[in-house]
Amino acid sequence: MKITGKLLINGQWIDGQAGTYQAVNPATGESIEPVLSKATTGQVKDAVAAAEAAASFFRRASLEKRAEFLRACAEEIMALGDSLVERAMAESGLPKARIEGERARTCGQLNLFADVVEAGDFLDVRIDTALPDRQPLPRPDLRYMNQALGPVVVFGASNFPLAFSVAGGDTASAFAAGCPVLVKGHSSHPGTSELVAQALAKAVKKTGLPAGVFSLLMGSGREVGSALVSAPEVKAVGFTGSFGGGMALVKLANERPEPIPVFTEMGSLNPVVMLPKLLENSAEQVAEAFVASLNMGVGQFCTNPGLVLAIESPALERFIDATSACLAKQPAGVMLNEGIQQAYSNGVAAISSQPGVVKQAVGESHEGKSGFCGQSTLMTVSAVDFIANPELTEEMFGPASLLITCKDLEELQKAICALRGQLTGTIHAADGEMADYDELIDVLSQRVGRLLINGFPTGVEVCHAMVHGGPFPAASDTRFTSVGSAAIYRFLRPICLQNYPQELLPEQLQNSNPLSIWRLVNGERTTKAI
């Protein structure tokens, strides 16, 4: 497939009219061909109008048709072959194995949502049949189900050129819900975005859906992104990125005449608590695993372990020494773009200059290397200084972590209480050790979306039970996840049909239950016909 630098609007590939730019290889700093184009606000309006025109058809399309479309998206992405992998590598600096794994995850979640759609449980159908003879008042026939919100805007993320981008989890879950999607592609991987958009456009055409079901727009987040979020036809937004970017979208959405939900995932420190017995038994082994997690993807994961908390002891000193020795051997890694590299360097400098912070170890220097490189860093600070300084809770997006040394359990719990909402929290404990830390576990669990035991948070499984979200500011709405099958609920709303003619009811609400889905009928969960 050839990269054209065009935009996809209502099924047509069109040159953007707001200027041109080129992608940059972060490993070399060099521009990549071809020249690409940016959308105007007028072109944004055209794409939004097409999505609105497709919304009714897509919302009412059969579950079978929707599942067919999702599977076709996955098939067409795989059909891109090595051209997609090679372009994503060039634009991200990520290795081949990572890109291939991300492609598998992207297609896997599309197929997962196809299965979810076919099962129909997400509709949450509830039927209370009429009771005309009930006293003192009769009950009408009431039928409840979830339905699509309408057009959804998805912002591609910088750190996942496939799995959180054009056909990532936000797009897949919105499609599954029956919502047209308008993607604002990320400037770090525009060629990759276009290739995936070409695959989705083929899937739209192959399955006979309206062209407006999917559009790709490139350009300034401030201009194109703002125009998309402000468009009255848009009903929801999915975003993965910085706190500042996410909150700007939340503010914009709330200032509309009709406010809409913005489902943001805005990063996290992902605190890791090391309990005393665990460190006594295996400080060196845990240190090695910690450094591996910290440097995975050059630390450019929203689940990177950016904070460690432990009680002072000789075992903790062993952990610090082992971590420092291992970290010093880590080569500088290529970061996703120049802006992220600069923000990381500035963030490390800002944290390391705070009162009480000590820089314990750094990785190998990146001097003499081309491209945008980041150096691994471990810093320590006392719990007293950490609790007194809110600036130490700022995320450093890269391979850096701050270790909080606590005098005792009480101080450890106070340090956890000083944290804001997080995507994940982790506890490393020896066998049977957790039983003595009930209150600490409860305090940590109230601040995270996912609680791990004896692992590291950088792996996010795409499955039914996953939660990738958390209390603010990890996410803008703690009730939802952006990964896993439950992500579909972000883009649905309930509707109740009262005394609706049987012959006009959608299949999922009909007495005969032709789809054989699970329904709550008069308080009983069943697949039987009424």
Detailed description of the structure:
The protein is of the alpha/beta class and 530 residues long. 36% of the residues lie in helices and 20% in strands. The chain contains 14 helices and 23 strands. It has helices spanning 41-60, 63-79, 82-92, 96-119, 169-177, 190-206, 221-230, 243-254, 276-295, 314-328, 338-352, 383-388, 409-417, 438-445; strands spanning 7-9, 12-14, 20-25, 30-37, 126-128, 142-148, 152-155, 181-184, 214-217, 236-240, 262-265, 271-274, 307-311, 333-334, 358-362, 373-374, 377-382, 400-406, 422-428, 448-453, 492-498, 519-521, 524-526. A seven-stranded mixed sheet has the order 15-17-18-13-12-19-20, sandwiched between helices. α4 packs parallel to α5 and α9 (276-295) runs parallel beside α10. The longest helix has 24 residues, at 96-119. The protein is globular, with a radius of gyration of 25 Å. It starts with 6 loop residues before the first strand and ends with a strand.
Question: Could you name the key traits of this structure?
Answer:
530 residues; alpha/beta; Aldehyde Dehydrogenase, Chain A, domain 1; Aldehyde Dehydrogenase, Chain A, domain 2; seven-stranded mixed sheet; five-stranded mixed sheet; 14 helices
CATH C-level of the largest domain: Alpha Beta
Largest sheet: 7 strands, mixed
List low-confidence stretches: none
Shape: globular
Question: How would you name the CATH homologous superfamily of the largest domain?
Answer: Aldehyde Dehydrogenase, Chain A, domain 1
What CATH architecture of the largest domain do you see?
A: 3-Layer(aba) Sandwich
What is the alpha-carbon Rg in Å? Answer: 25 Å
- Percent range for helical residues? 25-40%
Biggest sheet: strands side by side, in what order?
15-17-18-13-12-19-20
Which fold name fills CATH's third level, the topology of the largest domain?
Aldehyde Dehydrogenase, Chain A, domain 1
Q: Number of helix segments? A: 14
User: What amount of the residues lies in strands?
Assistant: 15-25%
Global mean pLDDT: 96
The tally of structural domains comes to: 2
How many beta strands in the DSSP annotation? Answer: 23
Structural class from helices and strands?
alpha/beta
